[in-house]
Amino acid sequence: MQKVQLGRSDLQVTPICLGTMTFGEQVDEATSHAVLDRSLERGINFIDTAEMYSVPARQETYGRTETFIGNWFAKNPGARDKLVLATKVAGPSRGMPWVRAGDGMTAKDIVASCEASLKRLQTDVIDLYQIHWPERNVPMFGAVYYDPSKERAHTTSIHEQLEAFAGLVKAGKIRHIGLSNETPWGVHEFVRLAQQHDLPRIATVQNVYCLVSRGLENGLDETMHRLDVSLLAYSPLGFGLLTGKYDKSGAEGPGAPQGARIAKFESVRKQRWGRPEALAAARRYNQLARDHGMTPTQMALAFCYTKWQVRSTIIGVTSVAQFDEDLAAWGTTLPPEVLAQIDRIRWENRDPAA
């Protein structure tokens, strides 16, 4: 698997990234370490986590994912040097008062969160440090429309955030920066201000991208292409909808597999992945895969693995077997007729999990 460059940085990563938000809630520490072992064994050199993980976010599990990874590094001397490690600083509260007392994301907050992540991860440097979601008012996590009435009087400027990152880079605590859950305007402003003030330039944006949520193709992909910022695609399997596991029942019905996130956690069902329209569209994609001799997982991952917009696809798993299945989809080429039918389904259903 040939490595790819992230933006204009010197980071060279595999086009598949191990996402870890299940570590600490669905996945215990021993299984987490087994997945990390297998990932390294299979040549994946890119790991993504966040200070607020695991998910769904709870005060009791805040920081647990990073702690599990840090303990794995401690058990495996030399592993850290083989990996590109990405983590994220959480945005303002969103109902999580245990994250910096629910405050915003000032320069001081960014530095404090970075230092706490370094301690949990038991490492001296973070290769890619990302803003998990913007502090400013933007539509995200299932919201579709920008609402000016929700603007707040006081927010931390992008310039101030970039200056905080610059200090962390100068101190040797982070190497490069990225964004997540961002908009075209936000990406452009981060790049513009970095260039204007000689501050760190974003290398990546981590946004949702999958068959049932392709809103990124409505303008953000052009912005990222022209500004040379790389996409890290998360939720390529639509939170499990695109695996086919919910096809025989409602997403929260009796046929949902025990332990599956969307069946287990009410907070997830209330978000975009629990919409009936998202499940209906996923069933159509899943049947298309079967009609062409593929598993739904194979087709959904191949879609992301082969799209020009995607630099690296983040896969989250709950077992070693799941990880191996997701890796097995690498190298799958979708025939032109399948791609045409995928676009036809999208035309009829749009992006129900946007």
From TrEMBL:
Signal peptide: none
Keyword Magnesium (UniProt): no
One Pfam match: Aldo_ket_red
Record's keyword terms, sorted: Oxidoreductase
Record-linked InterPro entries: AKR, AKR_Detox_Biosynth, NAD(P)_OxRdtase_dom_sf, NADP_OxRdtase_dom
Keyword flag Cytoplasm: no
UniProt-listed SUPFAM superfamilies: NAD(P)-linked oxidoreductase (SSF51430)
Span of domain NADP-dependent oxidoreductase: 15-345
Name the record gives this protein: Aldo/keto reductase
Species lineage: Bacteria, Pseudomonadati, Pseudomonadota, Betaproteobacteria, Burkholderiales
